[in-house]
Write a structure and sequence with these properties.
The structure is a single chain. With about 140 residues, the chain is an alpha+beta fold. The chain has a domain at about 50-85 and about 105-135. The chain is built from four helices and four strands, in the order ββββαααα. A four-stranded antiparallel sheet has the order 1-2-3-4, with no helix packed on it. The longest helix is centred in the last third of the chain and has 44 residues, at about 90-135. The radius of gyration is 27 Å and the shape is rod-shaped. The termini are far apart. Keywords: Membrane, Transmembrane, Transmembrane helix. InterPro entries: CD225/Dispanin_fam, IFITM_antiviral_protein. Belongs to the CD225/Dispanin family.
């Protein structure tokens, strides 16, 4: 325990906890004999849970709409939704696992779509060149 002097809490939370800034939490314990004020460092992941981007849902929607070979965009979207559900439930490891799978599926979908598009352009240009060469 480390006692500190006066500290002005910024925002009250539940019970006897007060939020001071993004990395600290002011805990006040009231007992009949004394009042102790402690400064405890919080887990930054727990404080910034809403800022964690492990679900890649926007990227998955893009993959679903614009590049969806073998329905990989749909599967990536499903994993993204599962990742968001796990994050809301508080299971950070599950959210990270589903998010990693969604990211991998999105990368594979984009690479396959780009490769297919480039192959289409090369084949089209080759056929166009060969057809025009025979007629002129």
């Amino acid at each position: 325990r480390r006692k500190i002097g006066l500290c002005q809490p910024q925002k009250p939370l539940k019970g006897n906890q007060y939020h001071v800034d993004s990395n600290t939490l002011l805990l006040t314990h009231h007992s009949p004999l004394q009042t102790t004020v402690e400064l405890t460092a919080m887990n930054p992941v727990g404080l910034r849970l809403s800022h964690c981007r492990w679900d890649y849902i926007i990227w998955s929607l893009f993959s679903l709409v614009y590049s969806n070979p073998f329905c990989l965009g749909l599967v990536a979207l499903i994993y993204s939704v599962k990742s968001r559900d796990r994050k809301v439930a508080g299971d950070l490891e599950g959210a990270r696992s589903y998010g990693t799978s969604a990211r991998f599926l999105n990368i594979v979908a984009i690479v396959l779509s780009a490769t297919g598009f480039l192959m289409f352009i090369v084949i089209y240009c080759t056929l166009y060149y060969n057809i025009n060469r025979h007629y002129y």
